[in-house]
């Protein structure tokens, strides 16, 4: 195989990763807590950090489910708490005016999280113009720039011009993200102060929304709702090695009595030796993450099988998630009893 | 009755009229033609005209139906022809960039004509940015500002800022209008170069979109899709007098043999004498149009029965009309075979 | 006028009335109560009653508003209470299986009340089939027969065959109705045990859903969401007489100081004399209700101006009403804490 | 690894396959033709065939694209031609009455193909009831049974009862399918006379719609719109072996000059030897298809990563496909010029 393998250039393949926790971050830089089975990871990156990521606070909320009522309320509570902390971190005051932006394309349901969230945000800016509003409500307006493929206008351009015109004090922007780990699809909320680059549509100029480009504070909220099939395959191969390693090294009698598909092997930390990896998966077992993704991409692309996919019942999930985000945003922005 | 009647101030009641043909215009100022049962009326108003209307060209296309296939195509053809004439009148060139604006609130179907029309407009501005486009397509982008009650931002403010940012050469703005004659609901397309004032929502600042306010040429396209119940009542009373006058003065034997609800009395020009009007409708018969509307309004308002209404199957009608307008706009803006 | 007037046949015009309270009912047959500005009227009709209406219990709930939160909850509470009484009246037991039917055409929003209501009804029949359900939930299934103009199948035929097949113990059917009084549009819920005749679409065979035709108990719930423009006009003329009579006979100083459009004249019981009616409205003032409606119909029909209309923001109203009905139905059918 | 490997039972794992061409069929049983890059495969299975599949005619239309206008028209033409042949095969006559059924759940867009297709089918049964129809139109009605998880009623039960009631001569049923090959998602239309088993929802009794169960002829039309992530992974591993084998055995100079992701290796028929497979993919390389799928399933299930997925822009694809199917069905059922 060797010779032909060299023809596959595995050097600089870089799949888009929207989530900070999917980067290689040292464990001691992250502060964590967990509550009701929900994990909150928080990190503050400085300028010129080694991850080559923008400076700012990144919060990642990981949960199992938001469709059950109790789970929904637990996630909502933590989302509100963390969003509140971000407002404090950015020193946003009670009277500061907010523009909430729903990014994405509402006609493609997996990309409609932003649009559906702002549908339920309580809007008051017009009442402030009339001086006809309970001051416990913050001055809030919304904007749905849609995507350049639909409007012909870059969403950044729309936002920049509206911000210049109506002068809000800060922005909250919501978008659907692309997951780089299959287990995160619809199961992670990321909040960050470092800005966001909307969409990945063809011809999108992809200019970042951030304090640098807009002159005002930007809070970005994202949920990964789609995943590349390359990721599905390379993740599974990674998990396959993990599972076999677990089975080899686990003496836990209870696990042995469980049906094989109930054994949760994911927290197994035993590392397979190269020799073992090769036995199980041949040459493929020896590739690092990037090489593996590149290879899978090269297998799928020529046969037009490299799809960006979403879960079958995405309509239902987006409905729940957009309700949760809008409810949380309303509770944090406004001070209603 | 007299004394109490005086308490009702009928002097300066002015119901909103979006259509120029519903104004009192001298017949010789209007140029007309009719084709396939479709009437086209055209008028050019000078500055400081007696109607107190903005200067500009006003075209009114009146038709019976757009749901039948043949009727649809006939109206489409005339709409395209007239829209083309308006582009010529404004000296708009083949390379001039157009921003098509869908006014109104897409969640209220009777107000969604603009939004649904731009959904089907062919957009190319992003392809021009990439220099990747057949030059027979004009540079076109779309904008859906929504209404201030939903976004907190006046639609004029959104448009003004986007126009400043992306600098189109001219605007086509589409909106649902309010009819001042029940027979025009969904049956008239008005095209004008004099600008348009979006919406009538609560708290809407109602700033006009026009060359004066935006600095570029504006073509406004409107269809009356709603009507005030005050208009329904006062129109019907007006028609009632007309019908009875027709019955009194008509010797046409054929009409006498028709069932009463088939006799088209509308082109009857015989005027009832005041004495006759009083006999038929008492004091009410002697009121002029404005007085009658004011009176009806005063009857309906205190009992919360003064509604803005639309036809029952408005969903279906808006679907047809928005397709017709977008098809016509595409054919006029782009030069596709 | 006389002679010509005779040509207008006012004898047997009968506008459809879906609401029992719009019939001429003797006051002492109706039992009433009122709570939080909501009026509940209840009547039990025997077989072969003078109204020529089917025997059964008729409940009419009249309210001013359901869009405000408090009003919504007040109406919801009364709707539940009355629906519960109807289940008791029909001796429906806790274990009886219910089929909830949403009548109408979901693509025409004014006709979508039934369809949108059942969207939120909690369905359990499939869980009973699996024997996998908390028995505090009743056995409930839903059916959306749509309209014959869309499916080619009469909704009665669909319902009859499904009822035969799955054998529920009783039916709750929800439909949009046609109001015969402008003040009732969207402001009345009627519950009846006498059955319901779905739709009025072209070619609809209009067979009644009732115990007689289906063999099981039927509870019909309806809200008038549309109104005929004939009704708008004739109602307004009726109210006009009422208002002028009020102004003539009212010595209330406070009313005289109010702006004219704030004076609520509706509860005025003074009857104008014929002489006064004729002074105000001429011959028209002397017509009875049916004659007036017939006349208005004859004015509007030949000029194609007789429309069935709905309020402009019907989308919003249907959303609220369908939520209220589904919530009430769920609370009554199921016994959840 | 050996010992642990034995713990994974690979014997009888059977992933659902809705498509006949994904079965192991001998090549000489299939009749094929290809036109405009569209492949049509046709097979007639006898009773008690070796595939353990129901007897009947199976037609599979495979295409690359339906979003481009020309491709859409080419696929439409072939779909009509093949559907016509099926009607002939079943000896369906010009006057036979058809019930077109849209299976699936319209609220989950990937499952809405059936529902969206029947939305555009021309319905005439109600006009036949009125004897008011051009006889070139067939007697057609539609039915949308929805899914048991939504209605509480098995779709089979609804269909059976309606068929019993309205007695059509034959059924056309449209459903979204589950692909067992990633390259078929949205790119295959299957037409069969052998019946169809609707849905795979929880609690669905999954009774087959067929002549055996309904007593009338059934034509089933399906498009795979979703795929299991297990399939994505095991397919990719299969293709990976194929690609590497191609690279090893291909001396084509042109291919060597192409970028690696442009080399179409799929028609490579060289089979890797076991020794080579093991070198590339270790033990995994030696698994047969079923063993591989079972293993992947066992890796993904315990970590809740085994999702049924669909493409990101499924909304757009379903829109195109449902238009194509309804247009084809209308052209075949009715005889309009």
Q: What does it look like?
A:
4 copies of one chain form a homotetramer. Chain A has about 325 residues and is an alpha/beta fold. In chain A, about 35% of the residues lie in helices and about 20% in strands. Chain A has 12 helices and 9 strands. The first copy, chain A, has helices spanning about 1-5, 70-90, 115-120, 125-130, 150, 155-165, 210-215, 230-250, 255, 275-280, 290-300, 315-335; strands at about 30-35, 40-45, 55-60, 100, 140-145, 170-180, 190, 215-230, 310. In chain A, strands 1, 2, 3, 4, 5, 6, 7, 8 and 9 form a 9-stranded mixed sheet that branches. Chain A is globular. Chain A starts with a helix and ends with a helix. Chains in contact: A-B, A-D, B-C, C-D. The interface between B and C is large, with 66 and 66 residues. Strand 9 (about 310) of chain A pairs antiparallel with strand 9 of chain D, so a sheet runs across the interface.
Features:
homotetramer; 337 residues; alpha/beta; nine-stranded mixed beta sheet; 12 helices; 37% helix; disordered N terminus
Poorly predicted runs of chain A are 1-16, 200-204
For the largest beta-sheet of chain A, the strand count, sense and barrel status come to: 9 strands, mixed
- Backbone shape of chain A: globular
Strand-and-helix sequence of chain A, N→C? HEEEHEHHEHHEEHEHHHHEH
**How many DSSP-defined strands of chain A?**
9
Beta-strand percentage range of chain A? 15-25%
Distance between the termini of chain A: 68 Å
Please give the oligomerization state of what you see: homotetramer
- Rounded to an integer in angstroms, the radius of gyration calculated over CA atoms of chain A is 22 Å
Number of contiguous helices of chain A: 12
Largest interface: B-C, 66 and 66 residues
- Determine the fraction of residues in helical runs of chain A and give it as a percent range: 25-40%
Q: Which structural class should the secondary elements of chain A be placed in? A: alpha/beta
Average pLDDT confidence of chain A is 86
């Amino acid at each position: 195989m060797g010779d032909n393998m060299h023809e596959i250039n595995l050097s600089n393949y870089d799949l888009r990763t929207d989530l900070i926790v999917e980067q290689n971050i040292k464990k001691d830089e992250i502060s964590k807590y967990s509550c009701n089975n929900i994990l909150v990871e928080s990190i503050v990156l400085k300028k010129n950090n080694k991850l080559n990521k923008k400076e700012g606070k990144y919060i990642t909320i990981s949960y199992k489910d938001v469709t059950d009522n109790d789970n929904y309320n637990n996630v909502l509570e933590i989302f509100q708490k963390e969003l509140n902390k971000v407002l404090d971190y950015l020193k946003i005051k009670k009277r500061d005016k907010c523009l909430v932006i729903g990014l994405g394309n509402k006609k493609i349901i997996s990309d409609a999280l932003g649009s559906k969230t702002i549908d339920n945000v309580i809007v008051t800016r017009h009442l402030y113009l009339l001086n006809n509003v309970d001051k416990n409500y913050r001055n809030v307006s919304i904007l749905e720039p849609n995507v350049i493929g639909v409007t012909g206008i870059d969403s950044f351009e729309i936002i920049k011009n509206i911000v210049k015109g109506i002068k809000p004090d800060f922005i909250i922007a919501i978008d659907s993200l692309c997951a780089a780990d299959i287990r995160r699809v619809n199961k992670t909320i990321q909040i960050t102060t470092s800005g966001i680059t909307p969409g990945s549509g063809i011809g999108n100029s992809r200019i970042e929304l951030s304090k640098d480009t807009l002159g005002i504070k930007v809070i970005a909220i994202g949920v990964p709702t789609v995943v590349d099939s390359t990721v599905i395959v390379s993740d599974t191969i990674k998990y396959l090695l993990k599972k076999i390693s677990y089975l080899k090294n686990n003496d836990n009698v209870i696990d042995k009595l469980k049906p094989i598909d109930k054994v949760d092997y994911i927290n197994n930390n035993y590392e397979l030796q190269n020799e073992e990896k090769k036995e199980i998966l041949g040459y493929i077992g020896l590739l690092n993450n990037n090489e593996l993704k590149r290879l899978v991409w090269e297998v799928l692309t020529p046969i037009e099988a490299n799809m960006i996919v979403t879960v079958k019942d995405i309509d239902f999930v987006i409905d729940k998630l957009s309700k949760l985000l809008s409810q949380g945003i309303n509770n944090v922005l406004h001070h209603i009893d």
